[in-house]
Write a structure and sequence with these properties.
By secondary structure, the protein is an alpha+beta fold. It is built from four helices and six strands; from the N terminus they run ββααββααββ. A hairpin with a 2-residue loop joins strand 3 and strand 4. Helix 1 packs antiparallel against helix 2, helix 2 packs antiparallel against helix 4 and helix 3 packs across helix 4. It starts with a strand and ends in an 8-residue tail after the last strand.
Length: about 170
Amino acid sequence: MHTEHAPTLDPGVHGKPHGRFRVTAWCLPPSSAARRARELLRDQLSRLPISADVLAELEVVVAELATNAAHYAPGPYELRILHDHDLPVRAEVVDAGTAATLIEHILDHPLVVPEHIDELELGGRGLRIVAEFTHGRCGAQWTRLCGTGQIGTGVWFDLPIQHSRT
C-alpha cells in the first residue's frame, strides 16, 4: 500500500491550499486483480453510509475495471482510492497501458448495437456496465503509477458519498 498527500484548493480562500487530499494505492496481482480490487474497495467503503446494493454495484464496477486492465493492458496494476476531507470520493484502476483516450471515448459514447447483431459478440460491454452503474460519473485519464512512476491509464469512477464541506 502506498499513500500520498497533496494540498487541495479551497476556492473560498482565494485558491490557497486548504487541507489535504489523500491517495491510497494498492498493487493488484495480475492473476487475481478483480478479486483483490473488490476486497479492497469493500474494506474501504464498508464503514460508510452506502447501501448494500450500491456497494455491490461498485464492487462489480471495480472488478470489471481490474479485469479489463489485467486482460488488455500491461502491468503493473493498481487500485487507488482518493480521499477528500478523510472520506473516499473516487476509485481508480491504473495500468501501464496506453488506452486512456480510447477508454474515455467509449465511456463518453456508448456503443449503439444494431438489432441484427448479437450484443454478446461485441466488445466494450464492461465499460457500458461501468458507465451505467456509476450514472456516467466515470472516465479515463493519463496518469503515473504510484509504485513505479510509469505513465499509464487510470480509469476512475466517483463514489456516491455525500459530505458537507465546512
